[in-house]
Design brief:
By secondary structure, the protein is mainly beta. Helices cover 11% and strands 49% of the residues. The protein has helices at residues 2-20, 36-40, 258-263, 286-292; strands spanning 70-77, 83-94, 98-115, 121-139, 145-158, 161-176, 181-195, 207-215, 221-227, 244-245, 251-252, 266-272, 278-285, 303-311, 314-322, 328-337.
């Protein structure tokens, strides 16, 4: 069973990855941070297997019975006046069929002033997108591996243009309870547009991520390491703003070595008191830090920090993430135990 699942996962990844290399994609909101906890730990976490019902939006293999009857609502005032949020809920029918999960991701781009080709005003217009997902996970035989999948229905409305698509996420998790160690591989957004904006079919934002985490034995800390965008190489490109010019007028592009390319795939994070009623979370996203840094100026891009506090049957979470000196994001979340 396990070998068949891994083989199928590999074949699907191979086919779609070849079709995605070098291409542009639509529905980019599908890969946004899904919760304050995820944002605080660097932006992409795959291995939280606990009460956090929002985690299943990013990795369906983490769906488990601890999520039963948990409702999570998350909101972020994003960059440039954009706002988006997520909602998640899980329900366990019984121990045999395990747990089903449902979630929504929604983004509102705000209002824009429209003009025709002659510069005449055509009024205002808006843009928004949403994705509804349903997910399920199961244990592979009696092994330490768990496999999960999300089925997503995607809708997008940008001015007078509309599009509808479907996609699936595939997740595989390994759990070593003796070491309290987790490892995960996730393939996100395998799918297609059903209806296009203007007759041109665009690819979806395929993403393949790998992550590990472990709770330290004698210290109440769980560390996280994520390697993102395995489907694309190289991930890093030279920044035109960092071209240097010598006294003779010769220009030299920014050079990115192998180590620099690898480090930009890396996200690290740590959570203090991960199982307690009060948590402190820190993260660092190397890609964000490098791509948004200002030359010769320290602005702490890539850093994120947050906390959560549990009050009876509610848990409130907050995260502040540094992007640039001019624009940062705040994430708010509330999880409610409905039992």
């Amino acid at each position: 069973m396990f070998k068949k699942t891994v083989t199928l996962l590999y074949l699907l990844v191979s086919v779609v990855t070849m079709a995605q290399i070098g291409g542009e994609s639509t529905y980019q909101f599908l890969n946004l941070v899904s919760s304050p906890r995820q944002a605080a730990l660097g932006g992409k976490v795959l291995t939280n297997i606990d009460y956090d019902v929002t985690q299943a939006l990013f990795n369906p293999a983490t769906i488990n019975v601890e999520m039963d009857n948990q409702l999570a609502l998350n909101y972020s005032s994003y960059l440039g006046g954009i706002s988006y949020g997520t909602a998640s809920y899980a329900y366990t029918l019984d121990r045999r069929t395990q747990t089903f999960h449902a979630g929504i991701t929604y983004i509102n781009y705000g209002s824009f002033d429209g003009y025709d080709e002659n510069g005449n005003s055509t009024g205002t217009f808006t843009g928004n997108e949403a994705a509804l997902s349903v997910g399920y996970a199961l244990q592979l035989g009696y092994s330490d591996f768990y496999f999960g999948t999300n089925l997503k229905f995607i809708t997008s409305a940008l001015e007078q243009y509309n599009s509808f698509g479907v996609a699936v996420d595939l997740g595989l998790v390994y759990i070593n309870e003796d070491l309290d160690f987790h490892a995960a591989l996730v393939v996100r957004n395998l799918g297609t547009q059903i209806t296009t904006y203007a007759g041109l079919n665009e690819s979806l934002p395929l993403e393949i991520d790998f992550g590990i985490s472990q709770r330290l034995e004698n210290v109440p800390i769980r560390w996280h390491l994520t390697i993102e965008n395995l489907q694309q190489w190289p991930l890093a490109v030279s920044n035109p703003a960092r071209v240097t010019t010598d006294l003779s007028g010769n220009q030299t592009e920014e050079k990115i070595g192998f180590l620099g390319k690898m480090i930009r795939r890396t996200i690290i994070g740590a959570e203090l008191f991960p199982e307690g009623g009060f948590n402190i979370r820190l993260g660092y996203n190397f890609r964000r830090a490098e791509e948004l840094r200002i030359v010769d100026q320290r602005n702490f891009s890539g850093l994120s920090a947050g906390f959560s506090i549990k009050m009876k049957k509610m848990r409130f979470s907050y995260t502040h993430a540094k992007y640039t000196s001019a624009a940062n994001s705040n994430f708010f979340g509330l999880q409610i135990d409905l039992q």
